[in-house]
Amino acid sequence: MEFPIPYPVSFLIILLTSLLLITVRRFRAAAAANAKGPKPPKAAGGWPLTGHLHLFRAPQLPPHITLGALAEKYGPIFTVNIGSRTALVVSSSEVAKECYTTNDWAISSRAQTIGAEILSYNNAMPGFSPYGDYWREMRKIIVQEVLSNRRLELLKHVRESEIELAAKELYKVWTKRKDYSKDNGYSGQLLVELKQWLSDLSLNVMFRMVAGKRYFNLTNIGNLSDEKGERRCYKALRNLFRYMGMFVLGDAFPWLRFLDFGGHEKAMKKNAKELDDMAMDWLEEHKQNRTQDDRDHQDFMDVMLSVLDGQGVLQQAPFDVDTIMRATVVNLIAGGSDTTSLLMGFTVSFLLTNPQALKKVRKELDEHVGKGRLVNDSDINNLVYLQATMKEVLRLTSTFPGFREFTDECTVGGYYVPKGTWLLVNLWKIHTDPRVWADPTMFKPERFLTSHKDVDVKGQHFELMPVGSGRRVCPGVNFGQQLSLLTLASFLHAFEISAAANATFDTSETFGVSNVKSTLLEVFIKPRLSPNLYT
Known about the structure:
There is one protein chain. By secondary structure, the chain is α+β, with helices and mostly antiparallel strands. The chain has one domain: CATH 1.10.630.10. Helix 10 crosses helix 12 and helix 14 crosses helix 16. The longest helix has about 30 residues. The protein is globular and about 75 Å long. About 5% of the residues have low confidence.
């Protein structure tokens, strides 16, 4: 989540012209709320016009930390003003459960921001479209045709082959460049920018599932200075999530949107154009080379073209078929690759800073897989410590599931919440609640083998909700877990990993729709299996 809104004197002078309008609106809203029930506590410290925006700007602490401190003072439910917007901040599993169950019908729409409007094809992307008939139909298609257990089983060979190929390509790079590290005292090791490698691997899996082909060849992973690592497609997809999570001037004050301070809206439009050009190429290619194979052998774009053409589905949708196709394809590829690669990067960081946990992961792999073959999908169920490790990483790194918006008035925690209020669930505060988690800020995967053994991450346990909950829970959670676990297991089984001398791994985040490590993830690797397994 970014709040790149400037505060020069000239900017405040412009905002003063809006003071009367904001005051009148808030007075009317307060009067209506008082008539229907008590209001949630409002955090003190808001400024005129801008509200609490100053609490979220650098060099302040990250927003989840700032809001967590406010929860200590005001309790698990309170409000802040973000410009002219009012946001309800929820910081306990009990109140979150009430939101995602009793009131889920009222909070199933995403908050409509400028980033979402521009980059999601005016909300045609299913992940950002308002709750309604269009969203329900698109989610149904995606769940049935892409992310169902049957479809994931049919496409198991895609993720297995891509992960195996990626490991073998990494080995080839090691054989060519391993000696280059001798001058630094790391004979036989290769320095790799792992975040790029994980991102490219995840994108290749998603491209094959969705568009039927690979996109990256993973040849630059051993060269940290190679400018080619910042490729056009990767940058555009990465920027998609950064801009989606950016809260700009027009979001806080819609009537001042035309000013576009900082040029952020212009940059969003440029990035949207780049993504759309690529999506258009993929779509035209599929139309020209459309396969008549049965659906079990088609990629998602082929299947969706058949669904939209053959059954008259979505004829009443507010978008044309081509727009729906392009928006959905970009949404699937970006969403499926971004979150999984970030999770894997965080997991490696935590393991490198917790050597005993890394030792336990390796021991488990050697016991259940051995060193005579590579990891395959059927091994994952036996890797319970690795699964626990991933849950612990999700617990410690999840912050916000994104803004929701109340589409109707309702009562939350005994307080009246008017229509139009934004909802912000502070996952970090919930995931580090000392009432639920012993030593809440400590990295302890063992807790998911003992006290929290039965807690999963699929939105049914409100003390751990990294992918949200309710109607809009992430539909790709099963796929994300399968891809992340298989990739990590394969990588950690095939290579010894270590950090450079005196290196530290930053587990802080910058903010977008998904969190991004603010530093490169550079590690030394060395094969730990027989050479014939890499060829």
